[in-house]
Amino acid sequence: MVSQRAFPCALRTAVVKRDAVAIELHARTSICACWDKSLEFRSHTLALVRCNKAYIVWAIVICRLGSSVMYTNLVDHQVRRAGGVARHWRELVLGAVCLLTLLVSGHAKAAAPAPAECAALQAKYPQFKGKTLINAINPHTPGYEALDPNDPSKYVGFDIDLGEAIGNCLGFKMAYKPVSFAALLPTLQSGQADIVISDMYATEERAKAADFVTYSKVFDGVLVAKGNPKKISGINPTMCGTIAAENTGYVEVPLIQNLAPACKAAHRQEASVQLYDNNANAIQAILAGRADTYINDVNTVDQAVKAYPNQLEKASAVTLPYSIGIAVPKTNQAMRTAVMAALVAIQKAGIQADLLKKWSLGVENLETPTLVASN
Prior knowledge:
Distance between the termini: 45 Å
CATH architecture of the largest domain: 3-Layer(aba) Sandwich
Helix content: 25-40%
Structural class: alpha+beta
Oligomer: single chain
Number of domains: 2
CATH topology of the largest domain: D-Maltodextrin-Binding Protein, domain 2
Radius of gyration: 24 Å
CATH class of the largest domain: Alpha Beta
C-alpha cells in the first residue's frame, strides 16, 4: 500500500484482477468526471471501467464536489504478460492512460509538495525522519479534527492536514490518539503522545504543561437558541443568570466564571457552567434546552448553525487574547524548534492558506508562528 493523498474523489480498497483492471465507480453526490473513452460517470450511477495494463488497481471511487478529500489506498499487482511485444506495449500504454485519467479527472489535485526548505530541515533534524509520531486529538471539532464521515477509521480536518504537512516537511508520518479535550495535555506529558494539534488555545496556564508553537488567531462565536431568547451578546454581564455549556478545560470556563462580581454588582444571579467532554454534547445541551449558550471557536459555532439552522444562531463574535498552538513536550526543545521551522516554511509556501480555504476557514486566521512557553 502507498500513502494517502488528497484528491476530490475517494479511492478505497484494492483487489487484483487477472489481465485487466476493473475500477468500480460509485458517486455519492453530483458529477464525477471519471472517463474511459466515451464514459462519463454521474451521480448514483454504478459502472465498470476496464483498462488493460501491466500493473492494475481495483478501486472503489466515491466522488464528491468541492473541497472533498480523496484517500488513496492502492495495491499494484503485476498481471500475466500476454504473448507478443506489441500486446505488452499496448497494455502498458492503455494502463498508463487509465491511471493518468483517474488522477486528473474529477478536478483531482495532488497534495502540495514539501517546500524546498524541508530538505535542509530533514538533514538538520534527522531524528524525526522515517518515524511515526502520535498526535493526541479530540476529534469533535468539524473543520479542524473529526471522524471522516466516509470512513470512521480516519480523521479529517484542517489540523489533520496541517499536521500531515508538517510531518511531510520533517520526514515523519502521523498516527492519532483520540482523547477527551481535558486529557490532551496529560496524554502528552505522560509520553503517550508526541504532539498535540487539536485546536488548542495556547495560554500561559497551559504553557506550564507544554510548549506551544502558535499558528492561528482566535475568534470565538456565541451560540444560542434561535431568536436568542436570553439576549446574550458575549462574555459580559448579558450572561448573568444564564447557563453556559462548555468543554472541560476550555479557556472560556474561567472567563465566564469571572463575571460573578459584575453579576453581583448588578443584583443578578451569576452565570453557571455545565461541563462536557466534547463540542457535540455541549451543542446538544442547547438543543435540548438544558443550556442557553455555548461559546467556542467561531468556525465551530458556524458549523453548528449550519447543521441546525432552524434551532440555533450565532449571537455575536468574540475576540479572545489567545492564539491556537501546537503543543510539544517541554523536554523536547529540538521538536519545538523543528516544528516551528517547518511551520514557517509551510506558511511561506502558501500551504497553510490553501488548507484554510479548503476547510472554509478564514485566511485571516493565519498567524506567524510564535512560541508560548513558561520557565
